[in-house]
Each structure stands twice: as structure tokens, then as C-alpha cells.
Design brief:
The protein is mainly α. Helix content is 69%, strand content 2%. The N terminus is likely disordered.
Length: 468
């Protein structure tokens, strides 16, 4: 480690340890589950409104995938260089210092992981309500009068809490049951999507293809469309959060990032090709929502709606599982440095998992579910996912210059051009978001900045402990 690298304030606080039990397929499954969420089922509508050509639509999804892959390869080098739990928290700490690292971890805890889990769990309850209408009932059962944001328990909230609590319990119990559940859910999700794509092309008449005419490469529309597309690809970095639990991380984490990201790119481009084949650009752009439902009904009839609803519930569960597994590793790393709750630095002596960190995330997620209005945190901080990914990739340049002779089991493909293009593209997207959605972006900035006094509070506490 160089003289300038940040040295954590505390050493390992537990005699226990995280198990290295994950292989490349396990870690790739986390990537696939974390990326493929609800975005691919509504973002293509937004893209079709911006890009009036089927060929250009497929190109822009490929370009977005290429950017995600470039980011994944940069993260692959960083994870091989620093194979620790926590992902970009570790890279920002090493390159830019503890405050930058803390702010990415703070945002992950407040909204990034917890908010996304809460939103997915509430969507899960909505789909359960398709089969059991009472499950989606929002009538308050109990209201806790917390100042400013009362907590409301309803039947829908109760149903939403089920996947949160069940999957948190499973992942607390160890990587053994956790990876089995994660792999099964990810496998079901990928298999179902592959079947939908294959059967869809076999059964579709292709009437929508004639509506696909338009300018070959409408560059301005494609640049605007990259913003929602990159949000849809976000999560390609999920494997790095569990790098400390991956066997031979110098080889297997890069392999997992590559396999997972390429799998997602293939699925996303194929799904968009199917949407365009079945509907065409104009009909796709005119849809009000529920894209997969419309395509499924067009292809397989009204009865397919229930099967698609079941698939969506499995898909949401896979995403919740991946985020329940990945997020707590960030808070565990923060706690190791004295920048989070001390108890979160402990590893369960029997299960070898960051059990307290998982519990902390699940409790905050429950608060978000019960509060309802706090789900807006996800939209407020959505741009921060791209922002911190860009900063993390930029740390690759810093660490290459600072530690040129450090052993690097993997080197980012296309360096320096590919990671540089990724950073520039992400920076442009963040600036674009600031201009186009100024109020929402400012609210997100406020959430991030609110972490600064919290950071100094933890540092002051750590200094008191050190001085005594």
C-alpha cells in the first residue's frame, strides 16, 4: 500500500471471518439478478419515444451494454487489486479518501439498496394482489405517529415485508443456503426470459416490423436514450460487493462480472428485438405501461397474464435477494473503518455472515415500506448510482498512477480508453439529469450531502476511541 492510501481506523473487529464459498457462477448470478429488475419492462417504451427507428433502438441498447461492460472490466481490475467486501466503497476510500467512500456507502444504505428493495417488495405485493386482492389493500391497520413521516401498517405492507424478512433470514444463515436460493431465483428468472424470447419469436407474426422505418442513426435521440438505458443496466457491478467471499477473487470476480454483464446484454437486446418484432416502434412508444403483459397477451393470449405475473414475482424476489446479499457488505466494510454502527463490523461466529449489517438494512427497508412517501428516495438518488460508478472507475486511473507496481491479477480491457469513455459518458448523463430534472436531482444531492455531518460524527467518535 502506498504512503497516500487511506489506512482504516480499525482493524478486523471479530475473530470470525467471511467465508470464501462463492464461485464465478454464484457471483454472476448476483449480477444477473441485481441488474434485471423492472426497468427492462418499461424503459423500452421511453427509448422508443426518443428513438424512432428499430435499428437505432437496438444499437443504443448495444451501446449501453458496451458502456456497462467497460465499467465492469474497470471494476474487475479494482476488485482483483482490492478483493475486499464493499465494492466501490473500498475503491473510493483508497483513491479519494474516507469521506468520498462514506458518501457512497451512506447513499447505498439510505436509498440505493434499501430503497430499491422496498420498491421491489411493494411491487411484489401488487402482483400477489392479482391472485389475492386483499394482499394489495392499503387500508391502514395500525398507524405509528412518527413525526413528519407516520408509519402505516396495511395488508399490502405486511405482504411486502414477507420477501424482505424471509430473504434476510436466509442470507443471515450463511452463504450455503443464501447462494442456493440466489442461484435458483436467478436461474428461474433467466430461463423464463429465454423461454419468452424463444417462444415469442416462434409465435409472433411480425406485423410490427413494418412500422420500424425511420432515420438510421438519430444521434441526439440516442444520446438522450442512453440515460434511462444506463439506469436499466445498473447493477452490473454487484459481484464486487462480495469479492471477499469469492474463491480466487483475482480470477473469479472478473469472470463473474464479464459473464453476468454479457448475459444481461444478450437478454436485453433480445427482449427489445422481440418487443419491436411484435409491436413495432410506434405501438411500443404509445404503450402506457405493463409492456411484458401486453406482449405476452399479444403472443400467448389473455391466460398468459397470470403466468407472467408469477414470473414477475420470481424476478422481483431474485432482485431483492441479490440486494440483500450485496448491500450489507458495504456497511460491513464501513463499520470496519469505524464509519458505521460498530456492531455491523461483526461476523456471525457460526454462519460467517455480516448478520448485523444485514439486519440493519432490513430494518431500514421496513421503515421505508411502512412510511410510503420515503420511497421517493429512490427517484431522488437514482442519478447517484451513475455518479458513484463513474467516480469508482475514475479511481482506477488514480490507483494505476499511485501504485504502478502493485500486483494486478487482472487488468481492465481497453485501458485507458474504455474506462475513460465510461467516465465521460456517465458524467454527461449526470449533468443531463441535473438540467432536465433539476428539482429531483437537487433533492438527491441534499440526501447525499446530509451524510457529511454523519461522517464527521463517526470520525469524531473514532478519534475519541483512538485517543483513549
Amino acid at each position: 500500500m502506498s504512503r497516500n492510501a487511506y489506512v482504516p481506523a480499525t482493524s478486523q473487529k471479530s475473530s470470525s471471518f467471511l467465508d470464501r464459498r462463492l464461485g464465478p457462477i454464484d457471483a454472476a448470478a448476483i449480477v444477473v439478478s441485481n441488474v434485471i429488475g423492472g426497468g427492462i419492462f418499461f424503459v423500452p417504451i421511453i427509448v422508443a419515444q426518443m428513438v424512432p427507428s428499430s435499428g437505432a433502438i437496438l444499437w443504443v441498447w448495444l451501446i449501453g451494454g458496451a458502456l456497462a461492460f467497460a465499467g465492469a472490466m474497470a471494476y474487475a481490475e479494482l476488485s482483483a487489486l482490492r478483493p475486499r467486501a464493499g465494492g466501490e466503497y473500498v475503491y473510493l476510500r483508497e483513491a479519494f479518501g474516507p469521506m468520498a467512500a462514506f458518501l457512497t456507502g451512506w447513499t447505498s444504505f439510505i436509498a440505493g439498496f434499501s430503497g430499491a428493495i422496498a420498491a421491489s417488495a411493494l411491487a411484489f405485493a401488487d402482483y400477489v394482489g392479482r391472485f389475492v386482492p386483499a394482499a394489495a389493500d392499503v387500508t391502514p391497520i395500525v398507524t405509528v405517529p412518527v413525526p413528519l413521516v407516520p408509519l402505516v401498517l396495511s395488508r399490502k405492507a405486511l405482504v411486502a415485508l414477507v420477501p424482505i424478512l424471509v430473504l434476510s433470514f436466509i442470507h443471515i444463515r450463511g452463504l450455503g443456503p443464501g447462494r442456493i436460493v440466489q442461484n435458483v431465483l436467478a436461474g428461474l428468472k433467466a430461463t423464463a426470459l429465454a423461454l419468452i424470447i424463444a417462444l415469442g419469436f416462434m409465435m409472433a407474426s411480425g406485423h410490427g416490423a413494418a412500422a420500424a422505418a425511420g432515420p438510421a442513426l438519430p444521434v441526439s435521440g440516442m444520446l438522450l436514450a442512453l440515460v434511462p438505458i444506463m439506469f436499466t443496466y445498473s447493477g452490473w457491478n454487484a459481484a464486487v460487493y462480495v469479492a471477499e467471499e469469492v474463491r480466487n477473487p483475482g480470477r473469479n470476480v472478473p469472470l463473474a462480472l464479464g459473464l453476468g454483464t454479457l448475459t444481461v446484454i444478450v437478454i436485453y437486446v433480445a427482449l427489445n428485438a422481440l418487443y419491436l418484432h411484435v409491436l413495432g416502434v410506434a405501438a411500443l412508444a404509445a404503450l402506457p405501461g405493463r409492456l411484458l403483459d401486453v406482449v405476452g397477451e399479444r403472443l400467448f393470449g389473455v391466460m398468459a397474464a397470470n403466468a407472467i405475473a408469477l414470473f414477475t414475482m420470481v424476478s422481483l424476489s431474485a432482485s431483492i435477494s441479490a440486494m440483500t446479499l450485496a448491500g450489507p457488505r458495504v456497511y460491513y466494510a464501513m463499520a470496519q473503518d469505524g464509519l458505521f454502527l460498530d456492531a455491523a463490523s461483526r461476523v456471525h461466529p457460526r454462519y460467517h455472515t455480516p448478520a448485523v449489517a444485514i439486519l440493519a438494512q432490513s430494518l431500514w427497508t421496513i421503515v421505508l415500506v411502512l412510511s410510503g412517501t420515503l420511497s421517493q428516495l429512490v427517484s431522488y438518488t437514482g442519478f447517484a448510482v451513475i455518479l458513484f460508478s463513474a467516480v469508482a472507475v475514475a479511481s482506477l486511473f488514480v490507483l494505476r498512477r499511485r501504485d504502478p507496481d502493485a500486483p494486478r491479477p487482472f487488468r481492465a480491457w481497453g485501458y485507458p480508453w474504455a474506462p475513460a469513455i465510461f467516465v465521460i459518458a456517465c458524467s454527461a448523463m449526470v449533468v443531463n439529469e441535473m438540467f432536465r430534472n433539476g428539482a429531483t436531482a437537487l433533492a438527491g444531492v441534499a440526501v447525499i450531502v446530509a451524510g457529511i455531518p454523519v461522517y464527521f460524527m463517526f470520525r469524531a467518535k473514532q478519534n475519541r476511541i483512538t485517543n483513549h
